User: Fold these one by one.
Assistant:
Number 1:
Amino acid sequence: MAKHAKHARTDDTEAKKSDSAQAKSVPSDASPQKGGEFVASAHHHKASRRMRIVLIVVSVVLVLLMAALGYFAWMLVNEASDAASYQSTVQTEKVDKGESAPASDAGKSAAARKEAPRLADLIGKSENEAIEAIGRGATETSAKDITEETGEGDDKTTEVVGRSVTLALTDETTDAKGNTPSVYLTLDEDGTILEAGYSASVGSLGYGDVSFVDAVTSEHLVENLVDAAGMEIEEGSIEMPAVEDYRTYADDGKTIAQELYTFGGEASGSDGSSYAWSCKLSYDYSAANVSGNLADTIRQVYVYVKAAS
């Protein structure tokens, strides 16, 4: 019995020593480590929430900026359309009411205007004679053969039946858009001029930024050019065509895209000969519709003369 009691006490002592050793083997920082992980996790959640808030704010700002840009783009398009539509309205009213242009839209004084060469006097001359008669620094800038096919099948041949020549009037002022007044000659196979033409911008002729309607009805541009080209024509004899005959619109149906019309007739020259003439007036609003500035309109006029058939 004594031995058994001794063994029991020994076992108790060993158990206590074992428990004490296990207690010592446990790391002293176990509890603080778990607390640190909790704190780090909390900081991570806070940072994630802040990042989400920042992303939301940035997204809202971007949406607002896109909306603002869209609004301003819409305003610019409307302003350009309104500018072009304004001229359409003004010109339409003038056609309907027969009103003249405002003073600010009228061309320059007659003294400042330039005249077309006497084209009628060139008919029947050679190219060299025409260059001498025209003056104004007339210089050939291009020439092209006029050909005609004759025969059938294997017998078909191409013959040169004439030439077309372009002369730049280098002594005359080129307008702001780079258009140089030019003369166009059509010659037969013998080198005799059959038809003569002239082109220039309306502005370079001294008519300023005059509107299409006023160029015809108030400034009498067509009659002035035909008269200067060497043919007799009465001022005021040219009438304004119907709007649908000379005006085309953009896809919106309101903005003027172009105003174009070819006037024509026959008239006597200073030598009593009869001539056929045509005068094309062209107003292209493409650039003006983009910029919203009517001064960007390309205003060109072409006049041609040939012997009446």
Number 2:
Amino acid sequence: MNFTMPKNQNGQAKTNSWLRLLYWGLVVTGIWFAYLNVQPYERAVSFMFGKATSSAFVSLVASIPLVNGIAAIFSKSLSWILGGILWSVIQIIEILPLILYNNEKFIEKIVTEADGRSRYSLKDTDDPTLKMLKRTYNHLPISVVSNLEVLKIFTYTVDFLICLTVYSPVASGKISDLIFILATGQWGKLDYGNLALALITLFAIEVIVSLIIWVGKLSYAIKP
């Protein structure tokens, strides 16, 4: 089942007014949180690359006569651009499985292809490369979903470390100190405000997308 709002024969949404209001309210909320959530990644980019990235970029652009006049202005936005790209890539990887698993056509296609797909038998006389190709083919299309889940876990780990770096729950800002405090149970030394910001940054978009999907499904069940 798709998560988009259902349509009637005239192409208009077949939902009650409160569902439509809730749906678009969630969309606006998602956009607002997306804007807020880019800021930590901009700070992370600035922290990782510092002024060196902007200086190198300005030096490169300054060598081009027609655009060197705007190099300084653009350099101020470089960290925001890189932060936005980093955030977009991370969020797409994190929410893509959620969207795909709520799409009946996608699931049906994967299940149908997996059940009806022919399999190659592995032979002792096969070349190692041929065996590898056979294994790869035999695991399709399930391996695509499995690899997506592995990539999602890896991305969440990276995202979690970025959030803890920007919104560190310990005064020193070091992950090692956080591990030590957690291991020794010194809960009073944690900055719970920063911890809450880190968790919101980590899960806000996925929660909002989940709610949008839920409202989309609910709109199919409730007729006006």
Number 3:
Amino acid sequence: MTIWITRILFLLLCGLGGYGLTVLQPTIFSSPYTGVAVGLLFALFLILIDQLLRGFSLRAFSAITFGLLLGFVVSQLIDRSGLFETFEEGSTTRWLIRVGLFLAFGYIGMILAMRSNKEDFALIIPYVRFTPLNKPENYIILDTSAIMDGRILDLTEAKLIEGIVIVPKFVLRELQHLADSSDQIQRNRARRGLEILKPVKTMRLN
């Protein structure tokens, strides 16, 4: 609903713009009605493009824009490289060559950009990393055996796992029970696990 309200307002603004252009520059259109009609047609044309681009993501649009920019830069470099100096500057042939270079490298740039991922962009633009803002949290739930194993501390310190470490209460109770066990091996491993949990539990790893 909000989009259609925006479109209607855009239509009205374009119509008013066409009318205002007729008033300010009477030589452009023969009558105010013509200016309003041209403004409305212009708005309808853009709304039609908007409908055709439905489902077109912002990422794809950004990739296409970047690809076009890259293609334009490459075409300009080739045009100024001296390869086409035999053609007179300002001639139709030279103009067609420039248009052809822009279309060719613009198309190639768009396709390559749309096929690329964030790692590829990081190679082209150093020190830039694309991180989603709505990245879901990664929860790591430890059980008794994982804690008693003892290697979880090494993994967290080495940043080999990412997320939030969670130790359920029943696991803590089981460890505390095993720490009072008559079995010396289990008792030692459980107590070591409890010691390991001090720097590990509730740790957020990025």
Number 4:
Amino acid sequence: MNRLPGLLVLAGVILLVLFFYSNPEVLDKIWLWLVGFIGYLIVLLGKGYEKIKGLFIENNPAPNPTTPKENINHKIKHLKETQASDLESIKSLIENEDVATIPEALITILRYLDDGNTTLGLMFIQKKFFAYTLEDTHRDEKVPGGTRIPEGHYKLGINENLSPLTQRYRNRFPWFSHHIEIKEIPNYDKVYVHIGNSHRDTEGCILIADGVNAASTEKMILQSQKAYERFYKMVLPKINQNEPLTINILNENWFEILTKKQQLVNA
């Protein structure tokens, strides 16, 4: 049945040739139309030729090459495996009590990737891995609502203002009262730790989550609400008890800096 269309096309072409050969005056009247239709005829002839060739030549299926999608999936899998190994090494390093060169603070965030839109990081609380973080990208000149805060050592506190975002959180979560704010950042204010999944949700703040998808085109974090609730319930009581809480934020070159400092300490 698959060969029938090819035979019909060939028969039609032969009939047309015989018709125009025996009636040349018709050809004079429609030659312009034929010129415009020549591309379509070529396609039909090509298909007909392939069908006819199939009558006499046994088709040997070519080996199925690896598709671009399979190549991409393989690369993503490799990236995830490599990244997972690197992150585990980072966690192990920070949780090691021998690393004593990070300033004393309740929370430490280590940035490890910036793709020009999004910064990914790791949050440690009391030197124990706690969550993944996501921020806006670094910019030499601040773009309001689209630039991560500078690295540094900052205080943590409560923002008492009832902003629209704070009100939305109050409506959603019975355990929420006010946002936890990173304070005294030069040229920044109202920088919170809160819920979100991509750089579109940050506006300069720090998002936290229990999972990360760093291999996707748009970097994202996953299960943010669970991580935030855990963070909030751990940190808010300390703030309410007037404990002096601080946060360290280190840029992507933190490993080189810590290694050099550790070498100086051990010298």
